[in-house]
Amino acid sequence: MPNSPARILADLGFRYDPANVYQQVITQVLEAGHRLNLPRHLQLIMAEPKSEVMVHFPVEMDDGSFKLFKGYRVQHNNILGPYKGGIRYHHGVSLDHVKALSVLMTMKCSLAGLPLGGGKGGVQVNPRELSQDELMRLTRRFTAALGDNIGPNHDIPAPDVGTNAQVMAWMADTYINFNNATHHGSGAAVVTGKPVAFGGSVGREKATGQGVVYVIEDLLPEMISKPLADTTYSVVGYGNVGSWTGKLMAAHGSKLLAVMDHTGAIAPNDVAEGLDAIALADYVTETGGVANFPGSKPISEEAFYTTKVDLFVPAALEQMIGTKEAQMLNCRVIAEAANAPTTPEGEKVLAERGIDVLPAILCNCGGVVVSYFEWMQNRQSEIWELDRVDAELRKHMRSAAAKVLAARTELDCDMRTAAFAAALKHVAEVYRLRGIFP
Ligand SMILES: NC(=O)C1=CN([C@@H]2O[C@H](COP(=O)(O)OP(=O)(O)OC[C@H]3O[C@@H](n4cnc5c(N)ncnc54)[C@H](O)[C@@H]3O)[C@@H](O)[C@H]2O)C=CC1
Ligand SMILES: O=C(O)CCC(=O)C(=O)O
C-alpha cells in the first residue's frame, strides 16, 4: 500500500525500530492520516520535521571547570503559525525524543484550534545536579546557541520536564539582550510560561493540569458512571502537571490512592482518607519528591501499578506504559497528562483489557492553549484576569474534545486515532486553502 505508514517511513529511509519513540508516534499519526485518505505528499510532509537544530555549547561550572552540553530544537511544522513547544532539561533527551514531542505539538496546536505550529527542544542534562547559577548559565548559553532559530514570530519555547518559569525568564532575558528587543515590545513574547511579574500569564502554571481536569470533568463521569466526588485515581509524576492535576482533582473530592515519581511510590496509610493531594504538592516543592510524605507508606512499583482505581493519570515521561504496566494497571480509564506515555504494545493490551485511553494531545493541550493566551497578551500589551483565562481555556478544551468525539464516530476508531485525525484534517485543509497542495 503506497500510503501505509510503514511504506511512507521506508521510502524516507527509516530503518524499522519498534522501540524508537519517534517511529511509534509518527506511525500513529500516519495511521490516522491513512484512515483519512490524506494524500501521500501530505503524509510525507508530516513524517519528518522541517528542521532539526542540534547545538553544542560550553558552560562554566561553579568550580571554574567547563562542561560541553548538547541541545536540540526541532521544528516540525509551521503551516498553522509559528513553531511552538516546550524545552526539556533531562539526561535522557535525544533527537528522537524531541522529534516525537515536536510532532505532538503540531497535532496538539491544530486540535486546540491555535494559530501555531509544532516544535520542541531540550538539553541533555540532569538539572537536579546543577546549582541555580549553573542552571542560569546553561540556559543563557543554550539560548545564545539557538540564536535566530527562536523568535516571537518564528519559534516560541515554553516549559516542559525539568524547566520552569525561572528558566523561561532567563531565556527571554538572554534573547532580549542579544536582539536588542524591549521587554514590552515583542521580546518577552519569545517564550511563554514566564513568571507573571515578567510577562507571564496568570493561569499558565496550572494550565496543563487544569486542561487535564476539564477533560476529566467533561468525559469521565459518564465513562465510569460515577461523579468525580466518588472517583479514585493514581498518578505517576508529581511535577507541574501531576501536582496541579492532583490539586484540582482534590477540589472535586476525588481520592488519590497512589503516587509514584523518580523518588519512589507511595500509598496512604489510611485508604479511606486517601493522600492529601494539596499537601503532597507543597511537600514535593520543598523536598523534590514524594518519598517519605507524612501519612503515607512506601510501596513497590508493582503495588503502585496494581492499585485499584477508577482513573490512572500518567504525568511523567514517554513510554512508561508498556506491555508489563498495561497488564498490571487496575483502572477503568487512563487520562494521558504526559506526552506519549503509552507504547503501541501497551495500548494493545489496554484495549484487550477494556481500559479506555483519553489521549495526550487532547488531555494536555491546556498548557499550550494558555501559552497562546500569554503570547497574545505580550503582543497586545494586555493583562488578562484568571477568570478570563480559565473561561477561554475551558472553551478550547471543550471544542477539542468535541472534535475528537466527532472524529471517533465518523471514523469508528479509538480516541487516539480520532484525535490525530481531527488534528490532521485541519492541517490538510490549511495546506489546501493556501494552495500549497491540492
Ligand atoms: N509543563 C507543561 O506545561 C506540559 C507538560 N507536558 C508533559 O507532562 C509531563 C510532565 O511534565 P512536567 O510536569 O512539566 O514535568 P516536571 O519536570 O515538572 O515533572 C516531571 C515528573 O516526572 C517524574 N519522573 C521523572 N522520571 C520518572 C520516572 N522514571 N518514574 C516516575 N516518575 C518520574 C518526576 O519525578 C516529576 O514528578 C511530560 O510528559 C511533559 O512533556 C505536556 C504538556 C504541557
Ligand atoms: O506551552 C507550550 O508552548 C508547550 C507546552 C508543551 O511543551 C507541551 O504541550 O508538550
UniProtKB/TrEMBL annotation:
Q: Which InterPro entries match?
A: Aminoacid_DH-like_N_sf, Glu/Leu/Phe/Val/Trp_DH, Glu/Leu/Phe/Val/Trp_DH_C, Glu/Leu/Phe/Val/Trp_DH_dimer, Glu/Leu/Phe/Val_DH_AS, Glu_DH, NAD(P)-bd_dom_sf, NAD_bind_Glu_DH
Keyword set includes Oxidoreductase: yes
Could you name the domain of life of the organism this protein comes from? Bacteria
Binding-site residues, NAD(+): 208, 240
Q: Would you tell me the protein name for this molecule?
A: Glutamate dehydrogenase
Keyword entries, A-Z: NAD, Nucleotide-binding, Oxidoreductase
- According to its UniProt entry, this protein's organism is Algisphaera agarilytica
Site described as Important for catalysis, located at 160
